[in-house]
Amino acid sequence: MRIASSRTISVKVVIVLVFTFAFASFWLVGRHRPAQASAQGPSASHTNAPGEANCTSCHVGSKVNSGGGDVQIGGIPHDYVPGRQYNVTVTTNHSNATIYGFQMTSIDWLGRGVGTFTPAAGQSPVQTQVVEGIVLGNIRRYVEHTVDGTVPTMFNTKTWNFTWTAPATRVGKISFFAAGNGANSDGGPGGDYIYTNSTASLAGSAISNFSSDFQSDLAIYRPSQGAWYSYNLEDGTFKIVNWGLATDKIVPGDYDGDGVTDHAVFRPATGVWYLFQSTAGIAGATWGLSSDVPVAADYDGDGKTDIAVFRPSNGTWYVLRSTGGFSIVNWGLAEDRPVPGDYDGDGKSDIAIFRPSTSTWYVLQSSGGFTVNGFGTTGDKPVQGDYDGDGRTDRAIYRPSSGQWWLSRSTLGVTAIGFGVASDTPAPADFDSDGRTDIAVFRPSTGQWLISRSSDSSILAAFWGQNGDRPVPNAYIPE
After folding, report:
1. Verdict on whether the full-model pTM lies above 0.70
2. Who's near 445: CB < 8 A, 6+ residues apart?
3. N or C: less crowded end of the chain, CB within 10 Å?
4. What is the three-class DSSP state of 380?
């Protein structure tokens, strides 16, 4: 018994030495002042997130992600629900390491810490702990190993479990960054290997998603039949739903907030909205005039599509909020085309218009203020979407005359891509479930879809529909 006890003590001493020297940081990123090194775990700001280090400044001798192992993040939802708790894991893999460590944080697109971490209940000894740091003026929260959480229970790997609670309200895309360490426990910083990884959780489900699988489906509405035809690219199944009349305008959206697109139409003759919700069943509302343009979107950030119209005759938006009440906002002229989207990345759709005469975008941000940007030329069609996957809607146009797409990406800048011909109908959506809008067109003459997948730059060609059909993704671009 004494021998076993002595071995345990010696291991802990080594751990204390390793993490005193190995995870100490001379400067706390963002604050530019000496950080307090801790024998119990790394100091904050070492996850490789924007503005942070990744531990290689202390663990010398090897480049990041060069040791043949990795760090993996598990349990992060594709789309988060505000206030919901998620069981998350971080695993560091490295052959022949003696002890392991990690640190993870979650931030919004502005670099602010969002959500909260909680160590797993009932662990003895406790394996994880939560610390805070300031990076680029923003408070960030971190979950990391404790000294007792460094010893593996299996060879070549170590996994930590904890809870992440999503923020109480939608804040747009949330990014998770993690760094892992496979250490040799020799009491010095050399010979250790650092790995980094990242993932993200989105604020809303993919458009034209009738299958709850986080990716857009090939879908068309056939006015002659009042029928919706959707095809799941993941498993090859399809659905046919009769909902609407030939004179209706389709207004797809997630009206019940279950992550599945609902079949819905706006009937101009009566100003009535008819919703066939995937979970909540049939519903309806009278909202609008025959000359109004439907602009359904999630304006209050509750994860449910709100009924809304733009009235060109007076340039006014009328929004019936799913959380209760309504709003009336004057924003636009008779010639303008409504282009709602989450341009400021706060999880709420912004009221926005594109003015064809000047090719100017006017965005009234839900977070406050407005923006005015020129982008496009005469004859262009607005095709706004999140083409760079940062959680913010990007200004974009499709130029039928040349078959070109021009994207003003909020993170990656401006780019032009040739894709389509003059007679094609633009139908951008997230067909590969990577959180980025894919460039896509529907060719009415042949019923063919052409999709440029952002995940691997491959081109998907598929036949689904016929002349006279309207591609459902195009309905998210009000005419």
Report:
1. yes
2. 423, 467
3. N
4. coil
